Amino acid sequence: MTAPLFLTRSGSGEPLLLLHGMGSSSRDFSAVLPELRARFDVLNVDLPGVGRSAHLERRPTVAALTDAVEHTLDAEGVGGVHVLGNSLGARIALELARRGRALSVVAISPSGLNVPPERVVQGLGMAAARLVTRTAQPLFAPLSRSAVGRAALLGPLKARPWSTSPEEAIGAREGFADSRDFWRTLVWGLMLDVPRGLDRIDCPVTLVQGVADWISSGQTVRYLPLVPASRFTPLLWAGHAPQSDRPETIVRLVEEAAAGTARDEAAPAEPLTLAA
Description:
By secondary structure, this protein is α/β, with parallel strands linked by helices. It has a single domain (7-262), classed as Alpha/Beta hydrolase fold, catalytic domain (Rossmann fold), CATH 3.40.50.1820. It is built from ten helices and seven strands. The chain has helices at residues 33-37, 62-75, 88-98, 116-135, 140-143, 147-154, 166-177, 182-191, 219-222, 247-259, and strands at residues 7-11, 14-19, 40-45, 81-86, 102-108, 205-210, 231-235. The chain has a seven-stranded mixed beta sheet, with helices on both faces. α2 packs across α3 (88-98) and α4 packs antiparallel against α8. The longest helix is centred in the middle third of the chain and has 20 residues, at 116-135.
């Protein structure tokens, strides 16, 4: 059995799981963590092969990555959980919902529904980022200390990269340059992933994408007809990983999704909300 993933646990209330994207680590939620742990019992994990979590011996498919997350929840004594995920983490969040493990989901730019040409572009972009960050690895620490340096490091992921924290810049280093299973995860977790069984999801799902997100293209909204009672919320002034672009809005969306678990399931979900 794979060892549980590394996590930090803080706050009190209903359990909330944070799942970062590929090319980052649990540090990517530093902008929203203080507000979230005031309302939730927050479990913030490093996905397999990232940060302080061991990589998987088996192929890191979405199913295998989700198994590792479920094993970690079991080790923490947590059953159902609200989930906030970004990119690959959002895709895992939807898989947890398909398995009946999620109470609610806020999925920011989930991977999995891009068409073959988009997958090629995304794969080449991720590969280039890996090579560049490996070369520039010694520069991350000094660049992370200034707003200009962080803007240079995080520009492709954020709409307002100068407003990020040093923690987020180090998270990008952990996710790209330091990842111990980057290439297999890129192939099995992103390039070859095809979501199935999304019609089994029966918890509130909010699909979110920044309008300045050029990485995910239009794939987030493609989940809308496949996930029952889901809603789509585009974020103005936000990129692919908008946790620090729009922290207050992200926190509000998580709170609204969690509150939705207590609503009458017969009430129709709002299909489109523009978060200004």
